[in-house]
Amino acid sequence: MKDRLEPRTRRDGPRLPWSKVLAAVLAGAALLLAACSGGREIIITDAMARPAPLEGGTGGAFLTIRNESGQTDRLRSATSSAAQTVELHETVDDHGVMRMVPQPDGWEVAPGGRLELKPGGKHIMLVGLVRPLAAGETIEITLNFEKAGAIRVQASVREIAK
Ligand SMILES: [Cu+2]
Questions:
Q1: 84, 127 in Cβ contact below 8 A?
Q2: Closest Cα to residue 122, out of 60, 67, 74, 42?
């Protein structure tokens, strides 16, 4: 209580705004960096796609998403120059029959969490392939996140075990 009346308060007073200004500048710089890197805090690894023989047919793509952003994000949709349409699917066991169910709302990824898209589970469905996908090729897939925005990845086409 008594401290407030002492001169020290006045001397310390002006220093506080400077630290606030510095903090604001640093926060601004961090935001700028995050914006420039196009959602750097969402990390995509192991992007791959299965070979697919038919132009106009379908293909499956898989990858792992890591959320290092400190806030919940959501994979909302995806696009690819390799296919007319890209859907988010989940393979489910429907009374012994494996069935792919579209997931139009995508998937949430918790802060610090990871989401694995893999054969027999959640996956990216390439619908209406522009051309067949051959092993050794690379295709581009753009992932649209609710907060991180669009993140473009290169997926290598290769045989993938179930
Ligand atoms: Cu599918």
A1: yes
A2: 60
Tell me, yes or no, whether 49 and 124 share the same domain: yes
Ligand 1 centroid distance, CA of 70 (Å): 30
Is 162 within the bounds of a domain?
A: no
- pTM of the complete model: 0.75
Query: Ligand 1 center to residue 148 CA distance, Å?
Result: 24
The model's pLDDT over 50-74, given as tens digits with 9 standing for 90+, comes to 999 999 999 999 999 999 999 999 9
Q: CA distances (Å), 53 to each of 79, 129, 134, 159, in order?
A: 20, 10, 7, 12
CATH code, domain carrying 143: 2.60.40.1890
57 and 122 within one domain = yes
Domain of residue 151 covers: 42-157
Residue 92 Cα, ligand 1 centroid: separation in angstroms? 10
**CA 68 to ligand 1 center in whole angstroms:** 27
Separation of CA 50 and ligand 1 centre (Å): 12
Assigned domain for 26 exists: yes
Distance 115 CA to ligand 1 centre (A): 17
